Amino acid sequence: MTYHEAGSVEVQRAQARAWFESLRSRICAALEILEQEAPPELFPGTPASFAFKPWNRKSGEGGGTGGFLKGGRLFEKAAVHTSSANGKLTPELAKTLPGGDKQLDYLSTSISLIIHPRSPRVPTVHMNTRFLATSVGWFGGGADLTPMLPEQRSQQATDAAVFHRAMQRACDAHDPSYYPKFKAWADEYFFLPHRNEARGVGGIFYDHLNSGDFAKDFAFTRDVGLALLEAYPGIVRRRMREAWTGQERKQQLACRSLYAEFNLLYDRGTMFGLRTGGNVETILSSMPPMVSWD
Amino acid sequence: MTYHEAGSVEVQRAQARAWFESLRSRICAALEILEQEAPPELFPGTPASFAFKPWNRKSGEGGGTGGFLKGGRLFEKAAVHTSSANGKLTPELAKTLPGGDKQLDYLSTSISLIIHPRSPRVPTVHMNTRFLATSVGWFGGGADLTPMLPEQRSQQATDAAVFHRAMQRACDAHDPSYYPKFKAWADEYFFLPHRNEARGVGGIFYDHLNSGDFAKDFAFTRDVGLALLEAYPGIVRRRMREAWTGQERKQQLACRSLYAEFNLLYDRGTMFGLRTGGNVETILSSMPPMVSWD
Predict the structure, then answer these.
(1) pLDDT tens, A41-70?
(2) Where are the beta strands (DSSP E) in chain A?
């Protein structure tokens, strides 16, 4: 299905790109405020801010901006990236994508973020939304929360409930069938078969979303980003006043190993990026700052 | 090519298995002696020893013994495992193996080890050797050294030279063509394309080795194990008297990220194990104890 009514695919991509870049600015600003707000008795040092680093693709056209916050007092590491590309799919990869049988050329634009707080009591979060077009266009993405302590890792735990409610509101505003479907998809996607364990409490995941109406699908994707911006800073604000123990820090570093394994073994974005000449620095910036495998 | 002269494949596997298990005992003993010898002013605490944990395969027959040393004073983490299996290959995996077109049943036995020292001045080492048989049998394996500090990571650095000489002696005793071939194969194998960087200084790598003479190939594989046993403790003994800085520890944790990425993205043993019902605990025990991605 194509998105005829909204103009050319280049115009659609430009609209999505403008949104992703504005969302990036808003999210980074919100995180920097949290860096400043964090109680100094738990988070000593100077608040960090984002450094933005543009890059260009080595193959094809396009590039992006990597937003990196490193060694913050509240956020041990945060990455908020946008990128846009015009490229050619390998025939192998094309087979796995809608419309890839008709053409290898693709257009894309996306935002992706991963936030690794220093405190084991503050959950890690990830979000990625994207617009891709081969001979057809579609949106995809997801957001999931990864609390690090065992007692926070149930669906009923407070942070999980807050996060799920925000995602459900974003979904329900557009289609009542979305939330059950996209929540189940996240449960399936953010799962490590070799561990028989989920990486966190999930969230939503969707892909190849094309209702035939570009404006509708784009509005939904915008609301997913806004849901993240609505839910996550609140979760951080509540948790950042809680002291933690050395034992909890150990649990966090061990739990982050699931995150590292997921990204390298299963994550589509990582694999797509590494195979299509993406920027290795931004792709690997999703990896946790410090991890233990005991 | 089959190994007719040495009897049935089960007998060959039993011989290889007995060797791998005896080598395991000798290596673990050598490492435990180093744990005790390490200077206490640099390595405080109690010397650790190996815990041996037998496991059985969930699918097929067989199992192994995981040898784990955790939280040692000299060795932050060490894993020396043996395993033996009778199983059925998936048709997909069978296509990639000699003799896999004739039968899906396979026999295997192997030893694998990874040693992660605490000091950034002591290199990490890995070795794996194995006997596998489908409708034909063969040996494979490799050993490679991963020094963590930039100045140690050249081919000319002392530890690299010692390690390479030991591997060359093992090769040259059996066939003058082995060392150049197997060293080049290691350089190719232990390389991370997305980083455009080798994980360490290499060593040797070989696979599908079947000269037609089981005794000859088995003797070579024994000598690879003995070369490791000859070279590595000497390297550790020299380096364990050197104090290190916090900056060097940081370099080590960052360099270990290449190790983690290699194992999850490229390592054949890891992938073979995860796909054929191997033991997840032993497979993941190769991961570094603490890693940073800054």
Answers:
(1) 999 999 999 999 998 877 778 889 999 999
(2) 51-56, 61-70, 75-88, 105-117, 124-133, 137-146, 191-192, 197-198, 202-209, 290-292
